[in-house]
Specification:
Layout: E1 19-24, H1 33-44, E2 51-57, E3 75-80, H2 87-95, H3 97-108, E4 115-121, H4 127-137, E5 141-145, H5 161-176, E6 179-182, H6 185-191, E7 197-199, E8 221-226, H7 235-243, H8 247-250, E9 253-258, H9 262-268, H10 273-277, E10 283-287, H11 291-299, E11 303-306, H12 312-316, H13 321-327, E12 332-335, E13 350-353, H14 358-369, H15 373-387, H16 392-403, H17 416-419
Parallel strand pairs: 1-2, 1-4, 2-3, 4-5, 5-6, 6-7, 8-9, 8-11, 9-10, 11-12, 12-13
Helix pairs in contact: 1-16, 7-14, 13-15
Length: 426
């Protein structure tokens, strides 16, 4: 049964202490990319001594795990009940979300005067939410924009309901939100001419990652892909790149795919069963595994792999896999899209592919196979050093001021230190 976790909501802080209200509709806090984005962004937006109240509308796509993972002391969670009815009931349940959020806050004893700002993702931003927050909460509302969909991602193009809804939400955010957080500089360009906009890439908690401990490269090259590929990530290109290696070294490469079974990979990504046959003994599918297992796999791999087409949606997004891999001390083998060129240099934090083709992957793998252990360790340390640019603590001054309405925003910084000092005009 779903019950709001309100017992200790007010214990850590006294009356009048400012709080941020964060809204979500994910499997929070169970470790998927959207939940991690919300968690770290909310933590960086919370000044020392304050708290963030996360009101999560649990999705109606599965049962809730029996035990929530521990949350930081500054994060207080209220979980709303999911809809139990059919399609129409679920639609009505979503439309009433802002009112259900207010009711949960009232039951928890959180007053409007306790709040200093509201943070929510673009997917939850609509006219109803804007009206309720504007009339009742009356605090600065910051919308987090993490992607921009393109028509080629959908079978019906501009007629696809998901595409229409996404663009409608973006249009509303550009005109009605008080502030915008964008995950990339490309998205910053979409909003900065209308609203104060701050670029915040995916964040991590560097303290939550153990030291990497892969086996020696003399025993072979271990690669990992973590996530659900969908149409964004070109897994078939990675597999074909391995197949095109010279026969003398191909058997030295092992690829682990965490997040999908073999059947899921064939149905959800660009992989097909035939391209896997030649490498059946070299590719391991783990299926959906706990976050702790993913971190352990990253710690035991030499490189994570990520190949994306250089198109609009990949330029606008920012893969959260990259900061997580860096924080684990696992260099990245990738091609540059989005803002990745700001963070990943050839031979330092990873190996940069010339492009998103199988031959590019093959050439990158040959460079990886030519490394010795000392060279890899230097790359691993450089990756961990770079991960500090994504640590939520480094972003705290800029994000907390921005969400509370004090900072004007920044969209052109090439490092976190610049982001914390630079501003742009509307």
């Amino acid at each position: 049964m779903f019950q709001p976790s309100v017992a200790d909501l007010l214990d850590p802080v006294g009356p009048g202490t400012p709080r941020l209200l964060a809204l979500a509709a994910y499997r929070f806090p169970h470790g998927d990319a959207m939940s991690n984005r919300l968690l770290h962004l909310a933590r960086s937006a919370t000044p020392p001594g304050a708290t963030v109240v996360v009101v999560n509308d649990w999705p109606a796509d599965g049962t809730r795990p029996p035990v929530d993972p521990p949350l930081p002391a500054e994060v207080k969670l209220l979980t709303l009940r999911p809809s139990r009815g059919g399609k129409l009931a679920r639609w009505w349940h979503r439309q009433r979300r802002p009112l259900r959020v207010l009711a949960a806050l009232r039951r928890a004893g959180v007053r409007r005067a306790d709040l200093n700002g509201v943070l929510l993702p673009l997917g939850l931003w609509n006219l109803t939410t804007w009206v309720v927050l504007r009339l009742v909460v009356r605090r600065p509302v910051t919308v987090d924009v993490m992607e921009r969909h393109d028509t080629q991602q959908f079978g019906r193009g501009r007629l696809n309901p998901h595409f229409v809804r996404h663009r409608w939400h973006a249009l509303l955010a550009a005109r009605l939100a008080d502030r915008i957080i964008a995950i990339s500089t490309a998205l910053h360009g979409d909003f900065a001419h209308r609203r104060p906009t701050l670029v915040v890439p995916p964040q991590v908690d560097c303290a939550g990652y153990a030291s990497p401990a892969p086996p020696s490269l003399e025993g072979g090259l271990r690669l990992i892909y973590a996530g659900t590929a969908g149409a964004k990530d070109l897994l078939a290109v990675v597999v074909e790149g391995i197949r095109r290696l010279p026969a003398a070294v191909r058997d030295r490469v092992r690829l682990t795919i965490a997040g999908m079974t073999r059947d899921q990979a064939v149905s959800l990504s660009d992989l097909d069963a035939h391209c896997l046959e030649d490498l059946a003994g070299q590719i391991t599918f783990l299926g959906r595994v706990p976050r702790e297992r993913v971190l352990a796999e990253l710690g035991g791999a030499h490189f994570s792999v990520l190949v994306r087409p250089d198109v609009g949606y990949s330029r606008a997004g920012f893969p959260s896999k990259v900061p997580e891999s860096l924080a684990a001390g696992c260099p990245v083998l990738l091609n540059h899209t989005s803002d990745l060129a700001r963070y990943i240099a050839e031979g330092r934090e990873g190996l940069v592919l010339t492009g998103p083709t199988p031959d590019d992957v093959r050439d990158g793998l040959l460079r990886a196979l030519a490394l010795d252990d000392d060279e890899w360790r230097r790359m691993s340390q450089a990756a961990r050093d770079r991960a500090r640019d994504f640590d939520y603590r480094s972003w705290a001054p800029a994000v907390s001021d921005f969400v509370a309405g004090a900072g004007r925003g920044s969209g052109t910084a090439s490092s976190v230190s610049e982001a914390n000092s630079a501003t742009v005009s509307r």
